[in-house]
User: Which sequence fits this backbone?
């Protein structure tokens, strides 16, 4: 139902009873290409089709000529029997099953091979098959006015049908009496023909047959078609398909994984049985760390056992749901965009995201965009108002010339030939005009940003002098305004625009608002009241739609009638703009999105990553996935006849009698108690739904798919009600419904709950990336982002929703559970990783090592382990399509993030859960690189997260210097034992090298903080150096007599 606000902002509070308005032709049926059989259907008069070079035969008893359409109609909606012999039609392969097919032994093929099937009776004794006239003439019919008798076996020019043995020439139909036509027997009447035509019309609406093009590009018609190119019913074909990884790639990968497991077993067998004398502590510590790393590798590796890719068919989607001359049947989609702080999330970036949504290639009446402003900033409100005005020009321009991407900032800045494939004569002129319009739009947005930097003491006021309701960020009413989508607002060409709604939920002191998860749940409710689309798209404010057909890509999975019913969401990979070519800090995260997620898609589906995801609304409501119907239990027909001779027949008869009696009793009871039962169920279900979803009858009705029939004013009040701060009290919101609370990474928890309910997800990777966003390329911002992700994983690990012990007995598969366990356990790897990266320096400074003298057997095991590790990575890169640079950057940042962000997140999570010390949510800064040349990449921002990796770098570098100096001092024999220690330390330094480059930055001088830390750590290490005294022999000073008499 459209909400008419007259373009005014709606603000109010349900708890305070406040509610104010603030000014501010059906197409012709296309027949399939087929040859004419020469036979006429005796029901409808059409030609009988040819199948496998033979005429289609519906009844193998009498071969009564019936076309495929009439055969299918008779089985679905008719008597299911042959009009001539009254024999029940058997299912022909290729046709859907109907009730009663289960009792048949099998199905038959449409078409005859050899002679037609005859009955078991001899023709001389009379054929016991009822004809339309039961083989006799009616008494009241004269001899020259006989009822029609269709011959049992009709002759065919190809000789396919032959006469039965002992019969004469085929019978010819006698003339039909004028007063008695086929209507006497229920066929051929006007009413029946009307029913038949109506059924045909419905079938043609479902089936759209396309004309295939030949090799020469010519269209086929009814008389010209290529050999071996049958017509395909594209509208009925699957909308997507799986593309398994080629066996030549995946089988060697699996073999190497098994081999690596065997080598790991031998490795730990050797390590445990061969301790290091004199360095027992170092040996034990290293073995414990290695066991943890092996366990972590197993949790990460086995969910990648069944990687797959997917392919979508957008043309089939259009054939099925978009027919010419009729409204589009594609499902409605509500798009959620969330923002908090416009100073960290620039309004221009958010505006581009909104514009790309409004201009997407999807029916405009099916798209509604909801902007959640959780900071209640007037800057965001005014910027969205400017965006709605510019959208009236940008949307028709984007769709007219079919440009990509449809976010103007990235469209105008791309360095490509924008004239490629553009043939419209006015394109250049209109593009220049639109670029000028966009530059003026940017100036207006930047002016608003500049004004917002100085907040007046009395707060912001609107144009009519009304104080802005969100002046107090922590205490303000809920606000809603519909900018686009209401009556009278169209684009400059007079076309309808998608709906654009501004939403800021109510906030009051003393209430828990649950950050982003709470804001998303508010959007779920308000969108259900206003538009109630069955599917929801969630994007961050900096993730614009890069592929205008992204929504259609998702619908190929969600709207597929066969495989889409159990899909809870479609996750797209995250792609980013503005990242340096080398991707120093692994911002693209290519290994995760191109390898791990493909592996999960082969199991139960990818995990939800927080953005670029299309949900099924019913799955977010906490409902279980639809279950498959159980296969019918085995009956006597399934077993050999000898096992049913004794009591099988008796049991079947008794069981059948009981079932018939029960079914009659149920039908009678349903008819008697129908009204009473319905009223009781409605009352009970209403109470349960209100306890689950809250005290809004409009929203509860929307969860059941019931349409809203209330006035616009009442609809506004309900919309304000569902975003009030106390609406979720004593409900299941955040527990079983919507985005789940309890972690700053609500995305992992929400997807995990859906998979526990039996749903599956889908990973969609179109050739053109569906979404693109901005990533923090600065080292400090990147570490803070990883810190937040790791903190959320620690919170989930310490909660009741931990996948180690939650969700058993549901629909979660074991390998999928492994992936979720790995996603919440990985921060704990920071402790053994930090210790393990410290061991090389300790070994170099003390002269000891974690491994005893290596024998030939041990050397073979170590070499085999390194080879299997390398081959596993190479094969992963091969089937995942990942470059070696991206793979190596991912390995490097795994160490950098592990010894910094993951380590701090572990302690913050423990303090928050055990001691109640809460940490503030940090919004990652987003924005373009205005200075050019990736200036932000070299910007240094001091943070405590830099301390652990800096310390590791210094002590390992000092350890290398000390080890080399010690080897030089002690001679040639000390170089052999030094090799293993140096390799160990250099391995750590190479992994921390990007961190070292980020630490130094692009500055003339080193930051003062780094100098202080370096001096402090160097002093400590110098004292250690003096204590070790490496230039003195390990056995003490060597005293020799010099040969001189010092007493003289």
Assistant:
């Amino acid at each position: 139902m459209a909400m008419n606000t007259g373009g005014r902002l709606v603000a109010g509070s349900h708890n305070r009873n406040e509610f104010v308005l603030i000014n501010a032709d059906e197409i012709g049926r296309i027949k399939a290409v087929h040859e004419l059989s020469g036979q006429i259907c005796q029901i409808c008069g059409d030609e009988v089709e040819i199948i496998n070079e033979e005429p289609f035969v519906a009844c193998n008893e009498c071969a009564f000529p019936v076309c495929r359409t009439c055969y299918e109609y008779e089985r679905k909606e008719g008597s299911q029997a042959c009009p001539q012999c009254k024999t029940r039609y058997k299912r022909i392969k290729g046709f859907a099953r109907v009730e009663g097919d289960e009792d048949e032994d099998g199905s038959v093929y449409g078409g005859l091979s050899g002679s037609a099937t005859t009955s078991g009776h001899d023709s001389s004794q009379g054929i016991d098959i009822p004809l339309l006239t039961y083989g006799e003439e009616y008494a009241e019919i004269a001899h020259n006015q006989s009822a029609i008798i269709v011959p049992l076996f009709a002759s065919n020019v190809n000789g396919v049908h032959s006469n039965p043995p002992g019969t004469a020439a085929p019978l010819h139909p006698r003339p039909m009496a004028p007063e008695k036509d086929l209507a006497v027997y229920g066929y051929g009447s006007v009413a029946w023909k009307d029913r038949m035509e109506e059924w045909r019309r419905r079938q043609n609406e479902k089936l759209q047959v396309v004309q295939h093009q030949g090799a020469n590009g010519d269209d086929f018609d009814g008389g010209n078609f290529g050999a071996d190119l049958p017509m395909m019913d594209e509208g009925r074909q699957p909308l997507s398909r799986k593309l398994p990884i080629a066996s030549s790639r995946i089988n060697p990968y699996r073999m190497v994984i098994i081999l690596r497991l065997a080598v790991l077993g031998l490795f730990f067998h050797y390590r445990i049985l061969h301790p290091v004398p004199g360095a027992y502590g170092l040996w034990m510590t290293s073995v414990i760390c290695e066991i943890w790393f092996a366990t972590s590798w197993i949790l990460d590796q086995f969910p990648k056992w069944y990687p797959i890719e997917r392919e979508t068919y957008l043309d089939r989607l259009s054939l099925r749901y978009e027919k010419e001359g009729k409204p589009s049947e594609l499902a409605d989609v509500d798009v959620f965009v969330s923002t908090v702080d416009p100073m960290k999330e620039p309004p221009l970036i958010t505006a581009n995201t909104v514009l790309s949504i409004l201009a997407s290639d999807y029916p405009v009446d099916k798209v509604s965009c909801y902007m959640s402003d959780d900071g209640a900033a007037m800057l965001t409100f005014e910027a969205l108002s400017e965006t709605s005005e510019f959208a009236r020009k940008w949307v028709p321009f984007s769709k007219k010339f079919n440009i990509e991407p449809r976010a103007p900032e990235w469209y105008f800045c791309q360095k490509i030939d924008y004239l490629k494939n553009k043939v419209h004569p006015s394109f250049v002129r209109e593009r220049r005009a639109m670029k000028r319009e966009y530059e003026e739009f940017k100036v207006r947005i930047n002016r608003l940003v500049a004004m917002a930097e100085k907040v007046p003491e009395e707060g912001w006021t609107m144009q009519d002098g009304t104080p802005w309701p969100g002046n107090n960020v922590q205490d303000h009413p809920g606000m809603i305004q519909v900018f686009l989508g209401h009556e009278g607002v169209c684009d400059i060409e007079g076309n309808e625009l998608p709906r654009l709604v501004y939403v800021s939920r109510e906030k009051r002191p003393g209430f828990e608002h649950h950050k982003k998860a709470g804001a998303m749940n508010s959007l779920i409710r308000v969108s259900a009241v206003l538009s109630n689309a069955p599917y929801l798209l969630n994007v961050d404010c900096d993730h614009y739609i890069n592929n205008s057909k992204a929504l259609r890509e998702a619908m190929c999975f969600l709207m597929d009638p066969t495989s889409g019913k159990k899909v809870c969401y479609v996750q797209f990979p995250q792609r980013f703009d503005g990242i340096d070519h080398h991707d120093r800090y692994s911002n693209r995260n290519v290994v995760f999105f191109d390898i791990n997620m493909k592996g999960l898609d082969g199991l139960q589906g990818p995990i939800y990553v927080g953005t670029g995801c299309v949900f099924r609304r019913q799955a977010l409501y906490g409902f279980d996935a639809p279950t498959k119907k159980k296969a019918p239990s085995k009956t006597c027909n399934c077993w050999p006849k000898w096992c049913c001779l004794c009591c099988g027949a008796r049991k079947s008869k008794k069981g059948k009698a009981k079932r018939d009696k029960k079914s009659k009793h149920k039908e009678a009871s349903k008819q008697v108690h129908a009204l009473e039962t319905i009223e009781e169920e409605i009352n009970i279900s209403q109470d349960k739904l209100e306890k689950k979803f809250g005290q809004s009858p409009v929203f509860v009705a929307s969860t059941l798919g019931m349409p809203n029939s209330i006035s616009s004013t009442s609809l506004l009040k309900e919309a304000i009600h569902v975003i009030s701060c106390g609406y979720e009290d004593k409900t299941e919101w955040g527990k079983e419904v919507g985005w789940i609370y309890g972690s700053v990474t609500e995305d992992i928890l929400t997807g995990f709950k859906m998979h526990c309910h039996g749903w599956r997800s889908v990973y969609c990777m179109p050739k053109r990336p569906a979404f693109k966003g901005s990533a923090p390329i600065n080292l400090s911002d990147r570490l803070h982002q990883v810190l937040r992700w790791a903190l959320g994983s620690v919170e989930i690990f310490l909660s009741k929703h931990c996948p180690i012990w939650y969700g058993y007995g549901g629909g979660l598969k074991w390998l999928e559970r492994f992936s979720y366990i790995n996603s919440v356990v990985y921060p704990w790897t920071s402790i053994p990783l930090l210790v393990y990266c410290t061991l090389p320096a300790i070994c170099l400074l003390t002269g000891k090592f974690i491994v005893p003298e290596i024998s030939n057997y041990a050397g073979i095991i170590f070499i085999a382990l390194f080879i299997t590790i390398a081959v596993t990575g190479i094969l992963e890169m091969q089937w995942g399509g990942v470059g070696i640079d991206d793979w190596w950057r991912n390995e490097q940042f795994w160490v950098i993030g592990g010894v910094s962000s993951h380590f701090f997140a572990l302690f913050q999570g423990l303090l928050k859960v055990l001691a109640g010390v809460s940490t503030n949510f940090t919004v990652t800064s987003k924005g373009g690189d205005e200075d050019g040349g990736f200036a932000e990449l070299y910007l240094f921002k001091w943070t405590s997260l830099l301390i652990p990796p800096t310390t590791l770098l210094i002590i390992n570098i000092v350890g290398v210097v000390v080890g080399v100096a010690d080897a030089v001092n002690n001679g040639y024999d000390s170089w052999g034992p030094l090799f293993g220690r140096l390799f160990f330390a250099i391995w750590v330094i190479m992994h921390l090298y990007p961190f070292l480059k980020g630490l130094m930055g692009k500055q003339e001088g080193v930051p003062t903080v780094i100098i202080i830390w370096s001096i402090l750590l160097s002093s400590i290490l110098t004292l250690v150096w003096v204590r070790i005294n490496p230039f003195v022999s390990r056995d003490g000073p060597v005293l020799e007599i010099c040969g001189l008499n010092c007493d003289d």
